[in-house]
Design a protein that fits this description.
Length: 299
């Protein structure tokens, strides 16, 4: 069952002392931001010390929630992360959150605000990228594509311990639970900007067949190219093949993407033995460009 919103949790959890936020600091070059929470309010409650948020160029967002006084993910511990993915306090729940990620009983789930609560409905986005681990706190990763392709978001975290569960109904009892909220309920949400470097094309491999250029024979250059952000090998693109034998241009007989590789083919002239062949392959895919040059002595 989906837990309450942060406001609801604050009302439901007994004897909760919430943590007031302090200024956030970060390392923009690595696109990692650390949010520091005050500590030691309630010795019986989980105590969030810092939250570190980062993302990579593929858009995978990582939340590291440090809770040193709850080193293991025991059955009574719950973690809830609410995210305002459109950075708009007027949409979503009472704090503007559009999505919620919850770690309960060893499982992670993603929920979406439906106007009255966080639920999962037919047609909601999948959360195949959602992963978590727990050691001295929770580490949660999820693709921004499964958070509405967010580029700027606000978020909050609550860690609860002392929860009990009805074995028959699965209902959660928070009457004796304690919790730490970061930031404090009513103090707003933390803000984070997703920064993605413009992708590039990465040349993974260049080979020629045969390995040596021979006068009177065809020479094929194969260049395997992939996107830097997804790692996916390109399957199409505009290919240009340029060749020279000595000081003369040599037109390619084939220029295409085939079998996951850029392919250029030249027919080496029969009288070119002893000269130098230079071949250059260039591919343009979705506005991105990659090129490589090979030089071979013609035998």
């Amino acid at each position: 069952m989906r837990l309450l919103t942060r406001t609801g949790l604050a009302l439901a959890v007994a004897a909760v002392l919430v943590a007031l936020p302090t200024a956030a600091s970060g390392a923009p070059a690595a696109n990692s931001v650390t949010y520091t929470d005050s500590t030691g309010e309630n010795p019986d409650a989980p105590d969030i010390t810092t939250i570190v948020v980062s993302n990579n160029d593929a858009g995978l967002i990582t939340f590291r929630i440090n809770v040193p006084n709850r080193p293991t993910f025991t059955r009574d511990v719950l973690v809830a992360l609410e995210v305002d993915t459109d950075n708009n306090a007027q949409t979503g729940n009472d704090e503007g959150a559009d999505y919620a990620i919850e770690l309960v009983l060893g499982e992670a789930s993603l929920y979406r605000w439906d106007g009255t609560g966080f639920t999962r409905r037919p047609g909601d986005p999948p959360f195949t990228s959602l992963r978590f681990s727990y050691q001295g706190g929770a580490t949660i990763t999820i693709s921004r594509a499964e958070l509405g392709n967010t580029s700027r978001f606000r978020f909050s975290v609550v860690v609860i311990s002392g929860a009990t569960f009805d074995e028959e109904t699965g209902e959660i009892d928070l009457s004796t639970a304690v919790a730490d909220f970061a930031p404090a309920v009513g103090a707003g949400l933390y803000s984070y900007d997703v920064k993605l470097a413009r992708p590039t094309l990465v040349v993974r491999r260049v080979v020629t067949v045969p390995a040596a250029a021979k006068a009177g024979q065809a020479l094929t250059l194969r260049m395997t190219v992939a996107r830097s952000d997804t790692g996916a090998t390109i399957k199409s693109g505009r290919v240009t093949c340029q060749g020279r034998v000595g000081g003369a241009s040599l037109r390619a007989t084939s220029a295409r993407v085939q079998g996951g590789a850029v392919v250029c083919v030249w027919q080496i002239p029969g009288n070119a033995k002893g000269k130098t062949f230079t071949g250059r392959a260039t591919v343009v895919f979705e506005g991105l460009r990659a090129t490589r040059t090979v030089t071979k002595k013609i035998g």
